Amino acid sequence: MSQALALMPFGELTEQDIITVRETIAKDCNDSQFRLFMGIAKASGANPILQEIHPSVFQGKLTVQFGVDFYVRKAKETEGYLGYDVQLVHDNDTFKMHQEKAEDGRYYAVIDEHSWGFPRGKVVGGYAIAYKEGYAPFTVVMDVEEVEHFKRSQIGMQKTMWTNYFNDMFKKHLTRRALKAAFGLRFDDVEPGDATPAAYEVPQRKDITAEVEQTASERKKEQQLEEDPEVTKLKEARAEMKKKFAQLGITEPADMAAYIEQHAKPKGDKPTLAEITGLLKIMDMHIAEKQAQAASEDELA
User: Fold this and answer.
1) Is 184 left (phi over 0), alpha (psi -120 to 50) or beta?
2) Comparing C-alpha atoms, which of 134, 204, 116, 193 is closest to residue 162?
3) Total number of domains in the chain
């Protein structure tokens, strides 16, 4: 990781914190994606160390997801917050609910009864209730079939979490939805179950976007240079020239420069591929002469 990334300011996060984020939850991000992720985290106030936000790279695209802890914290900071409740309904539970109409004409769900014993059986649904002062409780009720597709997610870690920790993930999903709706929490996050997540873009964050675009442009130029056959050949020729200098016993930069000036006669500041190619042939001749001389001296000895 570059020093610029390591030292990128972020609230109370230390340099070591940012390095830890880069090497753990953001290990699949390239440098540009990591800059963008940290910019989003900073803009939203979500702390990656506290698992309030995390990145995912899917098919080369960055998606950013906000954890349930971030929703809970932001809800608590909202005026009128009175808490929330989340429960899963199992096939052996007794569960009844109905809808009521509020004075403003909007309907809301009311849980009449939810009781259970053991064994509870498989999970068949769930609900989360968000409480806000001056408002009727906001309830989200979901059938288990609505989240089963998460287990088939094309995103590896997402599929693993929903398969191995289904109950916990279902509760978190319900809580997110309830708090998001009840307290107007909008982070433009990508829902964990989206099969084809879109790349996250920071709205009106020109400073972050400019950095990302500049880095992406520089990376693109580097890739173009690396993909250019002529540039590749030039690098290989220079590497070969360095090896031959070692065979000739020429190791000082000044002596190398003098040798190149004498035998390659470069027209520019640096020898071209054609000039180096010609020089390599001359170097082969000098290496052969040196080896022949060494062999002659061995015979005389």
Assistant:
1) left
2) 193
3) 1
- How confident is the model at residue 63, as a pLDDT? 87
User: Is position 86 within any domain?
Assistant: no
Q: What value does the mean pLDDT take over residues 34-59?
A: 90
Which domain, by its residues, includes 236? 228-300
Say which range, 28-37, 56-65, 74-83, 205-214, has the weakest mean pLDDT.
Answer: 205-214
Q: What are phi and psi of 87, to 5 degrees?
A: -140, 150
Higher per-residue confidence, 219 vs 196: 219
Angle at 2 between CA 38 and CA 237, to 5 degrees: 140
Q: Which amino acid is at 150?
A: F
Phi, psi of 102 (to 5 degrees): -80, 170
Alpha helices in the chain (DSSP H): 3-6, 15-23, 31-44, 68-76, 156-164, 166-182, 206-227, 229-248, 253-263, 273-300
In a domain? residue 150: no
Strand partners, 64: 55
Mean pLDDT for all residues in the chain? 81
**CB 128, CB 84: distance < 8 Å:** yes
**Structural domain contains residue 287:** yes
* Residue 141 pLDDT level (bands cut at 50, 70, 90): very high
State the pTM of this model: 0.58
Residue 34 lies in a domain: no
Tell me the chain's radius of gyration from C-alpha atoms.
Answer: 32
Whether 44 shows a pLDDT value over 70: the answer reads yes
Please, what's the largest Cα pairwise distance for the chain?
114
